[in-house]
Amino acid sequence: QVHLVQSGAEVKKPGASVKVSCKASGYNFNDNYIHWLRQAPGQGLEWMGWINGKSGATRYAEKFQVRVTMTRETSISTTYLELSGLRHDDTAVYYCARLDSDWDAEYLQYWGQGTLITVSS
Amino acid sequence: DIQMTQSPSSLSASVGDRVTITCRASETITRYLNWYQQKPGKAPELLIYASSNLQNGVPSRFSGSGSGTDFTLTISSLQPEDFATYYCQQSSSFPWTFGQGTKVEVK
Fold first, then answer.
1. Residue B47: what pLDDT?
2. Per the CB < 8 Å rule, is A105 touching B91?
3. Least buried of A39, A53, A68, B8, by fewest C-beta within 10 Å?
């Protein structure tokens, strides 16, 4: 059974960086991409980017290009999202999700439980 | 970026009602449209992918249709566990984008 387990909530000051982890189990980590998304309080979902579990290749949303880094440690089936230069409007629940596909259709079938990052001075 | 517009933003309905939510893309996305359900404090759950394909384990009262720019999610007979927020999402091109959500509330 596929599980994605994320690290716990954090409180950060403006300007700081945060690193969120997402540990995968129940499948071959190298076989899938992991996407990262976020959801500000009371708001909708925002896509941030993806990382290829096998190669480590990444693609980021232009909005986050300068501030985001996605990495992975294949030995422990874990993906990381690091966001720097935190601002108050980065306060959100951050999700990792596994990319699945059916022919050419792609979708996010398995999600982590979410990690609340609060940016507060 | 492709803009996704859902309507309505919220609706009130009763158990047993037929509910329809629409999603419009700012340009054609062929059939690359997914629907998710989200309950408070929980991660989204995939309902339908590629416009009309029901995800394994999702009740058959959920259905999706559409292609190009206009899509629909239908719940044929609303059940108590269906009160939630629903999001459409395009996977045609990056950046992936979501609709603003439709909250289905108890009437």
1. 98
2. yes
3. B8
